[in-house]
Design a protein that fits this description.
Layout lengths: L4 E12 L2 E9 L9 E2 L2 E3 L2 H5 L13 H20 L9 E7 L8 E9 L12 E7 L1 H9 L7 H10 L5 H8 L5 E3 L2 E5 L2 E5 L18 E6 L5 E4 L1
Parallel strand pairs: 1-6, 5-8
Antiparallel strand pairs: 1-2, 1-4, 2-3, 2-7, 5-6, 9-10, 10-11, 11-12
Helix pairs in contact: 3-4
């Protein structure tokens, strides 16, 4: 089992067409998660720790405030590098944390932030990122369902979570004072696809989709008819 790599990502929002839209970037097909549409982000570099008055080796990984600052620095830097957009670090809202399942060969421990886009003129380098788009959460979910774009579960569930909101103010109001949600998925392989279990599901401990009780899971079916269940 590999150790998860500390990372950060940003759900960048703008208002358009009487709703909210989110920036999605398509990753180069030749790198990890190739061809997937993701939010801007990447691993936390040594310089991100230095800017938070710490180093990788002085216990920052055990200090919440230090890691939060480093993750904010990484989120700001990666958004500029991948999309050419500047965001204000102090306005980032930390709303979720995702850790890649233990069965994966390469794992990430990712801080998820929400931010309001100040400008919309996206510039990509054609290296790690090959395309970009602004879509409403509902349209992105539709495009995934119909096979137009490929999403990974954290992106899918984030889009699902913000899809009911019609303004950035509503999103900020909902998440700014909420406790960040922690996701450490476990996986079961099924004939129709994968079942991801999240804490609180009756089948979480043993990765058993037949376990009776509470539901907190995602059925990631190969036919793209993904189903999120939470009781």
């Amino acid at each position: 089992m590999s150790e998860p790599i500390p990372s950060a990502t940003v759900v960048l929002l703008r208002e358009a067409n009487e709703t909210i839209e989110v920036l999605l970037l398509k990753r180069n097909s030749k790198i990890a998660y190739g061809g997937m549409w993701v939010f801007p982000g990447g691993k936390i570099d040594a310089t991100d720790y230095e800017q938070s008055d710490a180093t990788v080796t002085d216990g920052c990984d055990r200090d919440y405030g230090c890691m939060l600052a480093a993750a904010q620095n990484a989120a700001q830097r990666e958004t500029q590098e991948e999309a050419g957009l500047d965001i204000q670090r102090e306005k980032l809202i930390y709303f979720a944390h995702w850790t890649t399942p233990k069965v994966r060969p390469k794992r990430f421990s990712t801080w998820f932030f929400i931010a309001r886009a100040e400008t919309y003129d996206v510039t990509i380098d054609g290296g790690e990122i090959h395309e970009h788009c602004w879509r409403s959460p509902a349209d992105a979910l539709r495009a995934h369902r119909e096979g137009e774009i490929e999403l990974v579960p954290p992106t899918f569930l984030t889009l699902l979570e913000i899809s009911p909101y019609n303004s950035i103010g509503e999103v900020e109001g909902a998440f700014s004072n909420a406790q960040p949600r922690i996701f450490e998925p476990k996986v079961e392989v099924l004939p129709e696809g994968l079942c991801y279990f999240y804490e609180g599901d009756a089948g979480y401990e043993n990765s058993d989709h037949q376990a009776e009780g509470a539901r907190h899971r995602l059925y990631a079916k190969t036919n793209k008819e993904w189903q999120y269940q939470r009781s």
